[in-house]
Write a structure and sequence with these properties.
Blueprint: E1 8-12, H1 16-25, E2 32-36, H2 39-45, E3 52-56, H3 61-71, E4 81-85, H4 92-101, E5 104-107, H5 112-127, E6 143-144, E7 148-151, E8 153-160, E9 164-169, E10 178-182, H6 184-187, H7 192-195, E11 196-206, E12 214-220, H8 225-237
Length: 249
């Protein structure tokens, strides 16, 4: 495939269905796509350091060796590398390994559009010479989402995962405070008792503008299995509401 100035995603040993799907979708996101199954193929595919991004599907010893080899080549030290992994494989050990390799983990449950936005953003920053420091922090990755929520007083979510939520509110919380949030607009007609999520506050930030004064980061606690299943299903079928969302905390 010819490289275009809009950029190219090179997939390292992709599953066949992943590659076929990427070829069908790439033009929609203004990116080319290519596949490589060996180091020689990969070096040919990565034909211009300024316009490529590498997408892998594991962090096996072979993949780690390949990444280290590429990063050791002149002009490829800052090559963006992203890895799609099943959510259940993203644990503390995997987060630490990914941070050491400076690769960005993308959970397989993410909507396709969000993955492509990440790829486009990484390629664009690489093209203009901006190198990002990769810090994978969460076992559960949060999908940027604005939705009305009830929290004693009015609140609005910023992002959410099956592990926790960040929300905006005018209520003043403290670290360790516990509460309950009802995300009615996301979970619909689910029973009210199951739709509410108990949480514990783990981070706080004062907002300088906007209708809300505080951004609150919270982890879910004592959530029923049915509610988690319903939440995960909801997150898998929606698209992100912000193209380049940043973590407010």
């Amino acid at each position: 495939m010819l490289l275009t100035r809009s950029g190219k995603v090179v997939m390292l040993r992709p599953p066949s269905e992943q590659f076929q799907n990427a070829k069908a979708r790439c033009e929609r996101y203004g990116m080319g796509v290519d596949a490589a199954h060996s180091v020689d193929e990969l070096e040919r595919a990565l034909d211009d350091p300024g316009y490529c991004v590498l997408l892998a599907f594991d962090i096996s010893p072979a993949t780690r060796k390949t990444i280290t080899h590429l990063r050791g080549r002149r002009g490829w030290k800052a090559l963006p590398v992203l890895v799609v992994l099943p959510d259940e494989q993203i644990n503390d050990r995997m987060l630490a390994l990914a941070n050491k390799l400076q690769v960005e983990l993308l959970p397989s449950s993410w909507p396709e559009g969000r993955v492509w936005l990440k790829l486009c953003e990484a390629q664009r920053l690489f093209q203009i010479g901006r190198r990002r420091g990769i810090i994978n922090r969460r076992k559960h990755f949060r999908l940027p989402l604005k939705a009305k929520a009830t929290l004693i007083a009015s609140a609005e979510t910023v992002d959410i995962s099956v592990g926790g939520v960040c929300f905006l509110t005018n209520r003043h919380f403290h670290l360790g405070d516990r509460g309950r949030i009802d995300i009615r607009s996301l979970l619909g007609d689910m029973d009210e008792e199951e739709r509410g999520f108990e949480f514990e506050v783990v981070s706080l930030k004062l907002k300088k503008d906007g209708p809300y004064r505080f951004a609150v980061g919270a982890k879910f606690i004592d959530v029923s299995e049915d509610a988690l299943i319903r939440l995960k299903q909801a997150l898998e079928v929606i698209e992100p509401t912000m193209d380049n969302a940043s973590d407010p905390l």
